[in-house]
Amino acid sequence: IVTVNCARLLKADHHATNGVVHVIDKVIATTTNTIQQIIETEDSLETLRTAVAASDLSSLLESQGQYTLLAPTNEAFEKIPRETLNRILGDPEALRDLLNHHILKSAMCAEAIIAGLTMETLEGATLEVGCSGEELTLNGKPIIANKDVLATNGVVHFVNELLIPDSAKTVFELAQESEVSKSTDLFRQAGLSSHLT
Fold first, then answer.
1. CATH 2.30.180.10 is the classification of domain 31-164
2. How many helices (H) and strands (E) does the chain have?
3. Per-residue pLDDT reduced to its tens digit, 167-183
């Protein structure tokens, strides 16, 4: 699948006497903002703006290159327990891992993403991309709220859930999500849960 500024290429190589024509499915708009400038001007990304500033990632998102940012909206951050969010925001290493988990190493327009695709993030983990009807899904969830916001150095898709990598979780949080959750309860009953958090 070939895209031109996220417009899908429908028919290629129509040769004319004075050139060649490629047919695409939408009008291409002028793109002037970097990914960082999109974050700075979009009201629904206010919390992400604060997180990027605290993690010193703004220079990367302003730099030349081609990235895909899965931009968590304010709503996405609000779904996370306040205690967990404050812990991550207060831990530079965990915060950087969290944000890098939302950045892909290449520009991926929605039209070019196909079901079953596995994409590697800057954090080093992978995300499973699929579809539910006409909606894109990430790790099985249809969480993309707005897609294909173009930047000079890539593309932004707004997501309404936070993708927290294992590297940004405490031992306690990892255990709660796994098959050792009963053991976690025993640690808590024994007054030892502070060691896991």
1. yes
2. 9, 10
3. 888 777 777 666 766 77
